[in-house]
Amino acid sequence: MTIYIAALAIYMLLHNFVFVLLLRAMPRGNTPVDPGLPVQRLSIVLPIYNEAAVILSKLGSLMTATTELSIAYEVLIGSDGSTDGTDAAVAEFLADHSLPNWSLHRFENRGKCPTVNQLVELSSGDLIVSTDADSLFDATSLQKIIDAFDRDQDLGCLSCVPVFNAEQMRTQGAYWKYELAVREAESALGTLIVSTGWLYAYRRELYRPIPAGVMADDLWIPLSVLLRGKRSVHDREVKALSEPTDPELEVQRRKRVISGGFDVVRRLGAACLRQPLLTFVVFSHKVNRWMAPLWFGVLVVSSLLLSVYSLLAYLIFFGVLALMLTPKGLWEALVSLVSPLAALPRVLARRDLAKWEHTRK
Question: Which of 302, 291, 238, 322 is nearest to 2 (CA)?
Answer without folding.
Answer: 302
